[in-house]
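User: structure tokens for Cytidylate kinase, please.
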Amino acid sequence: MTHKPLLIAFDGPAASGKGTLAAVIARDHGLPMLDTGLIYRAVGFLRAQKGLTLHDVDALAELALTLDLSVLDNPALRGREAGEWASQVAAIPEVRAALKQFQVDFAHQPSGAVLDGRDIGTVIAPHAPVKIFVTAAPEVRARRRWLQLVKDDPALTFEAVLDDIRLRDERDSSRASAPLEMAEDAVLLDTTDLGIEAAIELARNIVKDRRDAA
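Assistant: Done. Predicted tokens:
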């Protein structure tokens, strides 16, 4: 049987595990992958570098439109501060609009693609045959993120990371433009009580089932 191009959308809140799962699934199927959160981190990072405020909307939109993707390799984008910056600029409709076409074009490659983010299944690729919404309890997500970050910042407390997670959840879910929400036809994958191997196995099964049904 010949399959159509495979487009897979992973959505979910911060530190849910969606990026890890998306990377594995992309490798499984030999598909290009885009971590859309990273492009928002890049815009947030450049905003801070240039000393722009969140009220400099036109300048921020221009940053997004002219984003040099080589900046995505900067390890600073993986840090706690960059995550907060990303959540801030992602709430600006003009920034989201500027980055939308890039994401849509990535999703429409002939081979298919894997994208992970906050609004892939609802805004960027609502037609994707495979949509997975990955989540976990805030405390579990905070502990995962804290274990990553505390290696470079030993003074960082779990409580501070939990506060960050809750703030980002609120901002991502309540923003006027493309809020974080689960698409009606997405499959929920709750990783609260799952190890990484179990979560990967469930994600693989979801992809197989949805692909076979397409």
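User: Anything notable?

Assistant: The mean pLDDT is 93.
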